[in-house]
């Protein structure tokens, strides 16, 4: 069984249901992608200042964002290869990487887009998990369409519609 570790950068960041929603979304994304091997994902819940600092330090982008993904492996989207993944020597789990979610921004976006916090935090966790699995969306090509289709499939499985 896969695992998700949630760390709150500051006490009480997020709502009581945040950790449950994020874990459920990450595990659903792994399931929809057909990944049966036990995997591990680390998630940091932070605020605008926290994600801004991480974005600047790791991507040289001097701005906050809603979610960041730091894959540990070089994977091909839709063609998961467990042999291409780092393993945790103690647990045997495949280490997928890290995600960082800006919770206040998530709150604002959920309100702005009119679909609420639960959908927004779930979507960002799904989106980031797909990045950890090698998906990208920098251009308008087939890979972006493939990522969007996978996001939709996971959100449908979660029963979360737009």
Walkthrough of the structure:
By secondary structure, the protein is of the alpha/beta class. The protein has a single domain (3-158), classed as Collagenase (Catalytic Domain). It is 44% helix and 19% strand. Strands 1, 2, 3, 4 and 5 form a 5-stranded mixed β-sheet that branches. The longest helix has 17 residues, at 116-132. The mean pLDDT is 93.
Structure summarized in a few sentences:
With 162 residues, this protein is of the alpha/beta class. Helices cover 44% and strands 19% of the residues.
Question: Secondary-structure blueprint of this entry?
Answer:
Blueprint: E1 3-8, H1 18-32, E2 39-46, H2 48-59, E3 67-71, E4 86-87, E5 94-102, H3 103-113, H4 116-132, H5 142-158
Parallel strand pairs: 1-2, 2-5
Antiparallel strand pairs: 3-5, 4-5
What structural keywords apply?
single chain; globular; alpha/beta; five-stranded mixed beta sheet
The coarse overall form would be: globular
Count of DSSP H/I helices: 5
Give the tally of β-strands.
5
> What is the typical, i.e. mean, pLDDT?
93
Percent helix among the residues?
40-55%
| SS-based class | alpha/beta
Q: How does CATH name the architecture?
A: 3-Layer(aba) Sandwich
Rg measurement, Å: 15 Å
Could you say how many structural domains there are in total? 1
Order of helices and strands: EHEHEEEHHH
Which spans of ≥5 residues are poorly predicted at pLDDT below 50? none
CATH evolutionary superfamily: Metalloproteases ("zincins"), catalytic domain
